[in-house]
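Hi there,

I know you've been waiting on this one. I reran it after we fixed the sequence typo, so this is the corrected version. Both the input and the resulting structure follow.
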Amino acid sequence: MATGVTRYGQRLLAVPAMRKDGQRISIEFSIALLKDERGEVTGAAAVVRDVTPRWLEERELKRRLAALEEPGGRAAASGGAACGAGRLPDP
């Protein structure tokens, strides 16, 4: 932080996280360095949001697409929550 440069730039970062109650979620966040009138870094601010519903939906769509691309995949794609759909990766 002393350099005033973050290695993440202005990118939106996405990572798995864990809530206080132990539930796994997927979050996106951005970080901004706070500077005083001389341009010196005085702190940092972050904006974080829970994107778990979107992440789960995208994962299910990818699973269904992969099933359709397999030989005989049409029948496999109509199956329920196979392949552990709905689980978040370990943080």
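Quick highlight: The helical segments are 52-69, 73-77.

Best,
R. S.
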